[in-house]
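Following up on my earlier thread - several people asked me to post the actual chain instead of describing it. Fair enough. Here it is, all 108 residues.
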Amino acid sequence: MSRVRVAGVTGAITPDLAAAVVAELGRRAGAAERSDIRNELLRQAAELVSGTRYAKAKRLEREALAAKSGRRAADADVDGVRPLVERALEVDPEMPTSWRQMERILDV
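Reply from S.P.:
Thanks for posting it. Predicted structure:
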């Protein structure tokens, strides 16, 4: 998926085609595989955030809600959290967004 994203950014393929290919790859993966990939991306994002587990979960919640709505969070892209959350959302468009669900993902 990352290679397709890079190809879209560098112009090797159009950004629309890159997004469509990434979405299709996500749909073809099994539910368990998508969940594992999504959770790993969210854990990587949480590692970039300082503070308590609750603070990390709240930041992931804020980024996930912002990404789903298409708006930017105030501190988006400052620390690299947003791109990881966006990738997790690409893998699993039905990704949970509440801070409680994020805490459960971080606990594993």
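DSSP finds six helices and no strands in the chain. That should answer part of your original question.
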